[in-house]
Structures are given as structure tokens and as C-alpha cells.
Amino acid sequence: MSSRRRLTRADEAVQLLEARGDSEYGGEAVTQREHALQCALLAEQEHASPELIVAALLHDLGHMLHELADDAPDQGIDDRHEHSAAAALQALFPPEVTEPIRLHVAAKRYLCAVDPDYLAQLSQPSIVSLELQGGPMTSDEANAFAASPHADDAVRLRRWDDTAKAPGLPTPPLSHFAAYVKQSARPRRDEHM
User: Fold this and answer.
1) How many CB atoms lie within 10 A of CB 190?
2) What does pTM read for this prediction?
3) Measured between alpha carbons, how far is 44 from 94 in angstroms, rounded to an integer?
4) Which domain holds residue 155?
5) Is residue 40 part of a domain?
6) Fewer CB under 10 Å: which end of the chain, C or N?
7) DSSP 64
8) Phi and psi of 31, rounded to 5°?
9) How far apart are CA 104 and CA 89, in angstroms?
10) Is 5 contained in some domain?
11) Cα distance between residue 30 and residue 54, in whole Å
12) CATH code, domain carrying 36
């Protein structure tokens, strides 16, 4: 895969979403930024913690950390965006932010395994990516996922992710959610000097 960008400050994640957010969101009728803002809004409306709101905002940041084509899944390429986003954000945020991000694809696979109606609710692009991501979990995988300390938050994030695809839906601007980013970020080392 091509080069990945390293983030050194929490606000760089918001800047990256601002700079690269106009790209297509995987065959859906919204951009990456629109999807992120809708997802964060859904989290906020459900009174999620600030950390989970940030996870909702930044969960797909991994799509913006590489130079693959927007239609990479159609070409049979899984960019493993959940892992690259979590890795890029790990030094900047606590696990309450990064673990739901890392697990949000696994949550899709989990829901396909345990909820008979879930698969039918997925958009066509999400079904395509599901196959690249391993398909529905086995029973053992689902049990292991459910035992994870961040599984519940990952499932909540997944459900917002699946819903946050409404063209033209009004949302607050990125600056509104930047306050959650600042609040949830780990203190920088140079701030203690």
C-alpha cells in the first residue's frame, strides 16, 4: 500500500478530514466528511461520551491516510482503514476513542452473524466491503468479539456508521466537533514542560 500519513497532534485529524473529506465515501451518495459529520451527530444525539463522539467522527480516517482509489473495494482491495486509523490515533487519544474505531469493521461482521435482519439493511457498497473484510463472523469469532471490553461501543459506532449516509442532511460543522476532539485528546508531552 502507498505511504501513510503520521499524525502528531489531535487537531491534525480534524484538519485531515477538512482537507481530504470531499472524496467519495465508498460508493455512497455522501462524501467522507458528510459521513463523518453525520456519524458524529448521531452519536451526539444519543448522548454518547465525548470519546465515542470523537470515534464516530474519526472512524473512517484511515480512508484518508493512503492514496488508494475511491473504488478500491470494487477492485478487490481492503484498505484495512480501521487498523490504520486506530494506529494513527493511538498516541493521540485513549482507547475509548481508538478501540471502537479499530473494532467498527469487526462489529459489522459480528452483527451479520448475530442479527438475522442486519445484513439486509446494509447498503450495496457495505456488502461489497463486508466480503473483503472476511464476511460474517463464525460463532467463535462472535463470542470473542462480544467479550471485548469495547464491543458495545463498537456496535453503537457501527450502527451510526450504517445510518450516516443521507445526502444533504444538515449537520453542525467540523468546528463544533473539534471541541470534543480537544476534550478527548491525550495531553501532549510538550504541554507539561
Assistant:
1) 6
2) 0.87
3) 19
4) 10-186
5) yes
6) C
7) G
8) -85, 170
9) 15
10) no
11) 19
12) 1.10.3210.10
Grid cell, residue 193, equals 514542560
- CB proximity list for 156: less than 8 A, separation 6 or greater: 43, 46, 48, 52, 100
pLDDT: is 166 or 72 the higher one?
Answer: 166
Q: What is the pLDDT of residues 58-105, one digit of tens each?
A: 998 987 776 655 555 555 555 567 888 899 999 999 999 999 999 999
Residues 29 and 149: their CA atoms lie apart, in Å, by 33
Q: How many helices (H) and strands (E) does the chain have?
A: 10, 0
Question: Does residue 130 lie within any of the structural domains?
Answer: yes
> In 138-149, which positions are buried (b, 16+ CB within 10 angstroms) versus exposed (e)?
eeeebeebeebe
Q: Identify the bridge partners of residue 31 per DSSP, sorted by sequence position.
A: 24
DSSP helix, strand, coil percent of the chain (3-state; round to 5): 60, 0, 35
pLDDT tens by residue, 22-69: 877 667 889 999 999 999 999 999 999 999 999 999 998 987 776 655
**Does the structure show a pLDDT above 50 at 1?**
no
Enter the DSSP assignment of 116. T
Cell digits of residue 92: 493521540
Closest residue by Cα to residue 31 from 173, 168, 178: 168
Q: Where are the beta strands (DSSP E) in 47-163?
A: none
d(CA 113, CA 60): 22
| Residue 15 is assigned to a structural domain of this protein | yes
Q: Which amino acid is at 130?
A: L
Q: How many angstroms separate the CA atoms of 10 and 178, rounded? A: 9
